[in-house]
Design goal:
The complex is a heterodimer of chains A (about 325) and B (about 300). Chain A has about 325 residues and is of the alpha/beta class. Chain A has 2 domains: about 1-230, P-loop containing nucleotide triphosphate hydrolases (Rossmann fold), CATH 3.40.50.300; about 235-335, 2-Layer Sandwich (Alpha-Beta Plaits). Helix content of chain A is about 40%, strand content about 25%. Chain A is built from 12 helices and 14 strands. The longest helix of chain A has 20 residues, at about 315-335. The radius of gyration of chain A is 23 Å and the shape is elongated. Chain A starts with 14 loop residues before the first strand and ends with a helix. Chain B has a two-stranded antiparallel ribbon. Chain B starts with a helix and ends with a helix. Chain B has helices at about 1-15, 30-50, 55-80, 85-115, 120-125, 130-155, 165-190, 195-215, 225-235, 235-250, 255-260, 275-300, and strands at about 265, 270. Classes of the chains: A alpha/beta (about 325), B mainly alpha (about 300).
Chain lengths: ~325, ~300
């Protein structure tokens, strides 16, 4: 399946994206600290991590919008620094914020894109219809984009990103800011497109449930990739169920767990959290501790646990600390 | 997972989006692809302008206020010095330039909107030269402003300006040059601005002094030295002056009136020919365009 689709520029390659030792430094801050990964052609590859982990910076470097400080990246076989235009012609982009012209119709936006990208006229009309039908907007092609809902705009952006038959479609948080129903419909469209177009998709997300849709995911934290595999393999690697207890005395509980069961419990999301091989059987033993326990929850390993086991914190906690760090930095900068 | 995918596909088929979506080709970058980009950015300006009828009207109010209210009101006061020439005829070239300037500025301003609303990014990531984008935008702004100028030209008869084909062509050409230069100026200013308010403030600060100093409302002869210097620096001077001279040349006006009202711009006593004045505007436009291109090429 790999090298079958011809490149918009005639070269044939195997890996859709190949990244080696990529670094981005902003003055003092190292946003991306030497990431390495490959994305195979036709694959859906997810970058999972909290806000501020370096996802957007990485995607911006791959899309030639930000110049790497060090390292190299090939996208569709072209170097993101030396062959910027070649890369741009072979990628489609869907950003977090809309980049549509709201005062033009959906169709006018699509036309403008085709002209800007210099798409050959042959087959263009059919293609435009096909991609717009794929996202269910063909009937609304004559409407001004300003009359569209957030979900419709995002769908139109996806269709537009696909118009010039890119080899790789980059989606930066494609469903952020949308309601759950719209989010799942966007994913439906993306999967349809995956089936029909075999486009390689590279996306970033901080939603655990969305990462499940990916063929492979890279977990990124503080500018580094801490794990990279299929969602199933990552979950298998954790191997344990997650137990969360709320108690009146967290410290005593953590100590007791260590003494009695040799478990390494941590405080996450305000609850004492730890992993054991079979959760349900363990719960009754908890009461041997004789501590006042408010509630207990047991969960099968999820990507949340994967994140927890690789970074020592849950993704929500990581986000809070990142937000705090940013606030702290903003305070320093404004002085 | 597999069944889920199948149902999605079935749904897609029901919608009519068949799986046989043929990919399109993106040929290598060439002059042709750059020209296509310039044309589509230009076309977008026209589409936007056409759908914004309010803007067509609002950007004409100020010039018409100057022409009909100020022009009529000052007529009696000015009659002593106009040698029998209608004061409205005298201010007409300045008012035309003003209409063109406002429209051109608004066109350039749209790039600040584009940045605020994200659309600029769509253009910036396209596999074309930034210069094509900037050029398309400038040409678009000039076309739109030129159209606005055409409306003002069409009412020339009301203020006694004759509808002579050569004269109209001359005026039209000059205002088109001015429109291009002003759009380029606006683009240069907009390159670094992220907020509409600050852009509008800067534009107000630039346009009104340019208008007043240019001699749109007075004759450029026998001004005090400080104003003469400012007047010769003001680029708008070189648009208003040749226009007024052309209009007067097509009317039956006494030599003394022409001498007093449209003496022509002088550099150290040398009278600058109209063609050179047009050249000044064109050169200015090209310089500003280059700066705008440079600004946008290094950004982001």
């Amino acid at each position: 399946m790999t090298a079958q689709r011809s490149d918009n520029g005639s070269r044939q390659i195997d890996e859709a994206v190949a990244v080696r030792g990529l670094v981005k430094r902003y003055d003092e801050v190292e946003a991306v600290r030497g990431v390495e990964f490959d994305v195979h052609a036709g694959e859906t590859f997810g970058f999972l991590g909290p806000n501020g982990a370096g996802k957007s910076t990485t995607i911006n470097m791959l899309c030639t919008l930000v110049r790497p400080t060090a390292g190299s990246a090939l996208v569709a076989g072209h170097d993101v620094v030396r062959e910027r235009d070649q890369v741009r012609r072979n990628i489609g982009l869907v950003f977090q914020d809309t980049t549509l012209d709201g005062y033009m119709t959906a169709e006018q936006n699509m036309h403008l894109h085709a002209e800007l990208y210099g798409v050959s006229h042959e087959g263009l009309a059919q293609r435009m219809r096909a991609v717009m039908e794929m996202v269910g907007l063909w009937d609304r092609r004559g409407s001004l984009v300003n009359t569209f809902s957030g979900g419709m705009k995002r769908r139109l952006e996806i269709a537009r990103g696909l118009l010039h038959s890119p080899r790789v479609l980059f989606l930066d948080e494609p469903t952020v800011g949308l309601d759950p129903q719209t989010r799942s419909s966007i994913w439906e469209y993306l999967q349809t497109l995956q089936d029909e177009e075999e486009t390689t998709m590279f996306l970033t997300t901080h939603y655990m449930d969305e990462a499940e849709y990916c063929d492979r995911i890279a977990i990124i934290d503080q500018g580094r990739i801490v794990a990279l595999d299929t969602p199933a393999a990552l979950k298998a690697e954790v191997g344990t169920d997650r137990i969360q207890i709320s108690t009146d005395d967290d410290a005593a509980t953590i100590d007791a767990l260590r003494e009695r069961f040799g478990l390494d419990a941590r405080l996450a999301e305000g609850k004492v959290t730890f992993g054991v091989a079979s959760g349900e059987q363990f719960v009754p033993r908890l009461f041997e501790l004789g501590l006042p326990i408010g509630s207990v929850s047991v969960a099968r390993p999820s990507l949340d646990d994967v994140f927890l086991s690789f970074t020592g914190k849950t993704i929500r906690d990581a986000e809070e600390s990142n937000t705090e760090m940013r606030r702290h930095m903003a305070r320093i900068m404004s002085r | 997972m597999a069944t889920e995918a199948a149902t999605t596909r079935e749904r897609a088929l029901e919608r009519g989006g068949g799986p046989e979506v043929a990919p399109v080709r993106v040929p290598a970058r060439s002059l042709h692809s750059e020209l296509r980009a310039i044309r589509v950015v230009w076309k977008r300006e026209l589409i936007r302008f056409r759908s914004d009828r309010l803007r067509i009207i609002t950007s004409l109010t100020q010039p018409f206020l100057f022409l009909f209210v100020l022009g009529t009101g000052l007529s009696s006061l000015a009659s002593a010095g106009t040698h029998g020439v209608n004061f409205k005829t005298f201010v007409y070239p300045g008012v035309l330039c003003m209409a063109v300037m406002f429209t051109a500025m608004f066109s350039a301003a749209s790039i600040v909107w584009d940045r605020e609303f994200g659309f600029l990014r769509e253009m910036m990531v396209a596999p074309v030269r930034r210069s094509s984008i900037v050029l398309g935008k400038c040409l678009g702004g000039a076309t739109v402003a030129g159209f606005q100028g055409l409306i003002v030209i069409s009412i020339a008869g009301i203020v006694n300006v004759p509808y002579a084909p050569t004269l109209l062509l001359e005026i039209f050409g000059l205002q088109l040059l001015l429109a291009f230069a002003i759009t380029a100026f606006g683009m240069t200013a907009a390159a670094r601005m992220t907020q509409m308010q600050s852009f509008m403030a800067v534009m107000q600060m630039a346009i009104m002094p340019m208008f007043f100093i240019s001699g749109a409302l007075f004759s450029v002869a026998s001004l005090p030295p400080w104003l003469t210097i400012l007047n010769r620096i003001d680029p708008l001077t070189y648009a208003v002056d040749p226009m007024r001279r052309a209009i007067f040349a097509h009317m039956h006006i006494s030599k003394s009136a022409v001498h007093a009202l449209a003496p022509g711009v002088t550099w150290w006593g040398w009278r600058v020919p109209g063609l050179l004045e047009a050249g000044v505007i064109a050169l200015l436009g090209l310089v500003l365009l280059s700066i705008a291109i440079w600004e946008f090429s290094r950004a982001e």
